[in-house]
Amino acid sequence: MSTIEIIGGKHLYGEVSIQGSKNAVLPILAASLLNKGVTKLNNCPKILDVINMIKILEHLGALIIWDLDSLIIDTSNLTTTVVPEQYVKEMRSSIIVLGSLLARQKEVTITYPGGCSIGARPIDLHLSALKQLGVEVLEEDDNLICKAEKIVGTEITLEFPSVGATENTLLAAVLAEGVTTIKNAAKEPEIVELCCFLNSLGAKITGIGKDEIIVQGVEKLHDTTYTLIADRIVAGTYLAAVQGAGGKVTLRDIDDSQLGAILSILRTTGSRITSGNDFIQIKANRRPKAADIIRTKPYPYFPTDMQSQMLSVLSLAKGTSIMIENIFEARYKTVHELIKMGADITVEGKVAIIKGVKKLYGANVNASDLRGGAGLVIAGLMAEGLTVVNNPIYIERGYEDICRDLAILSADVKKV
Ligand SMILES: CC(=O)N[C@H]1[C@@H](OP(=O)(O)OP(=O)(O)OC[C@H]2O[C@@H](n3ccc(=O)[nH]c3=O)[C@H](O)[C@@H]2O)O[C@H](CO)[C@@H](O)[C@@H]1O
Ligand SMILES: C=C(OP(=O)(O)O)C(=O)O
């Protein structure tokens, strides 16, 4: 089994380009099922979750080829409406094919999705919204059998601005009869990206990026070519790595406007950052400062997907920091591993109290989810000596090649 080996203590220098966004590409791949034709996606990240989503689409009948960094997806002929359990259990985003398949085929059989274990992650909000659009949902064993004679637009208020529930509702509404209004919709940049992609296919969506999204159902869509945005969480991860290890790095091909809350925390904890619409430069020379309180919340606030990486950075901060994880109830699994490296962190429910220590020490640690794994790589860069991160497969779900990127920045890191 492979591992990531890091010899810590080196500052990071140089420039690296940021890959396409995982959380944008996955719903967009699901959305490609809406059109009986061809979608070309440029800047598609070569990550495990994309490979898994490709397997799902191919099983459903799509023909897919890579052309360098572009993915060409021909969904002219779909051959089944049963989504294979083995792939659905691999990742959370598999559930997003539900909305688009229902819109196109009016029936779907799918199981509850799997993915990293960071919380219970129910899909009640997705199913409630689909039912309001006229979908009948039957549960047999672990299978959801969903059918709709027709999908009819209506006003849907989400109890919580769930990213996935907003995506499934949008996809089901694109080809619906009439108008669907989604109130309390998620506003993440990846939702904006999905709406822009859908409009490029011929959908009629307004209110993009706002609490209330309006979808005017259309009868037909058309082929499209679309270029994906860069991954704000990968960018945030590399910025956190520089904050923790020290150095001066420029990230290329990333729009700073999506990272407002992340940049603000990095600045208050000691980094100097300059940025524009296609680069972010960070300089960090000293031990990070402690953060008063960081609360994870839906966009535009500090994202839960950056919590683990910041936890590593704050382990070495001068003073005590508080993290409050409001989104996923089981997202502190990395803490135990950081403690092995010398960190002083205590967790009480949603709250982690991080007392900054002067040094972290290399250790043999286990990744158990995607961002937690990335957080451990950062801790390895900050630590004295050798850190071995087991189970890099979790990290590969979302990072094309974290070792390649950090090695470009002069880190002593390799996959073994
Ligand atoms: C592929 C993708 O885009 N994943 C992102 C997406 O996940 P995901 O779409 O799963 O996240 P949601 O916004 O739906 O979940 C947020 C919270 O709502 C709860 N919930 C959600 C749906 C539901 O039907 N019922 C319910 O209770 C979840 O358990 C969680 O506590 O948004 C999360 C929050 O920004 C990010 O961490 C993930 O990286
Ligand atoms: C939690 C994440 O992803 P997913 O929803 O795909 O599990 C993540 O990207 O950090």
Automatic annotation (TrEMBL):
GO biological process, one term: regulation of cell shape
Source superkingdom: Bacteria
Sites where the protein binds UDP-N-acetyl-alpha-D-glucosamine: R92, R121, P122, I123, D124, L125, D305, I327
An example molecular function term from Gene Ontology annotations: UDP-N-acetylglucosamine 1-carboxyvinyltransferase activity
Binding-site positions, phosphoenolpyruvate: K22, N23
Location of 2-(S-cysteinyl)pyruvic acid O-phosphothioketal modifications: C116
Localization annotation: Cytoplasm
InterPro entries: Enolpyruvate_Tfrase_dom (IPR001986), Enolpyruvate_Tfrase_sf (IPR036968), MurA_subfamily (IPR050068), RNA3'P_cycl/enolpyr_Trfase_a/b (IPR013792), UDP_GlcNAc_COvinyl_MurA (IPR005750)
The enzyme's E.C. designation: 2.5.1.7
Residues of the Enolpyruvate transferase domain: 8-405
Keyword Transferase applies: yes
GO cellular component: cytoplasm
Keyword Cell cycle set for record: yes
Pathway noted in the entry: Cell wall biogenesis; peptidoglycan biosynthesis
Enzyme class: transferase
Record-stated family: Belongs to the EPSP synthase family. MurA subfamily.
Function: Cell wall formation. Adds enolpyruvyl to UDP-N-acetylglucosamine.
Name of the featured protein: UDP-N-acetylglucosamine 1-carboxyvinyltransferase
Source species of the chain: Anaeromicropila herbilytica
